[in-house]
Amino acid sequence: MLHPITTRDTSAYWSDLFNNEELDQILNLCKTLPLETGTIGNYETTVDDIRKSSVGWLTRNEDTEWIFSRYDGAVQRSNSCWFGLDLDPLRVIQFTVYDDAGGHYEWHWDMHTTPEADNTEVIKQRKLSVVTQLNAPDEYDGGVFQVAPCGQLHDIERKKGLTYMFLSFINHRVSPVTKGTRYSLVGWYEGPDWR
Hints:
Layout: E1 2-4, E2 11-14, H1 20-30, E3 36-37, E4 51-52, E5 54-59, H2 65-83, E6 92-99, E7 104-108, E8 125-133, E9 140-142, E10 145-147, E11 154-155, E12 163-167, E13 172-174, E14 177-191
Antiparallel strand pairs: 1-2, 2-12, 3-5, 4-7, 5-6, 6-14, 7-13, 8-12, 8-14, 9-14, 10-11, 10-13
């Protein structure tokens, strides 16, 4: 069931997109992925002061299609109700690990920066972002997902299974994890250039 927050917040959330058994199945699958250091933007740089996390990548295949399809269906329905954006299906999902060695991600947005003028690579715009919390809040301290639409700070409830959707140009961050490990999925819905 989709729970709208407010139009001004340009976001919405689901508390039941995946049930508890499915969340455990997803987390177990993700824990088999090879992990790499999370980078910043298009530049593949790492700066621990800005971002400290490990990431793995879920791609669309016969084992993961049900996850991608669940996101696609929910996002398409809400997009047609509220945003009306021209979106492509989800291509890849990031599995993100923030641990108690100071895992965090400072304020940022998810939109791509413009490629260099002599770069022929076509980069689609990220338009809607989705984040799903994979483990229970009593398994870690800190790691609060925060958004700041219209300059107002909002803490997103720390709840296993909560999936939060927001426009990709909204500033957001994950505060430092001080105990345990926070696991999440992050997906970006892309589309043609904004008009």
